[in-house]
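Hi P.,

Sorry for the delay on this. The queue was packed all week, but I finally got your sequence through. Input first:
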Amino acid sequence: MPKILCISAMVVAILVLVLFLSDLLLGLAGLDFAPFNRTEGTMRLVMDGVFALGGGVLGYLSWKTFKEQV
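Then the structure:
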């Protein structure tokens, strides 16, 4: 059971990282089809960066925990 939880946490981390990193990069490029393009200003970029960092940390921690169990 713990292995399944680690794998599901890795999947969620990858989804969060891809979603917010793409929004950050597309927003910086000035394209209109960024996923969360409704908010204006630099706070959107800060939030995208923080959430992408959180997804990366979650992925790293779940990967380390998975490797300890194997």
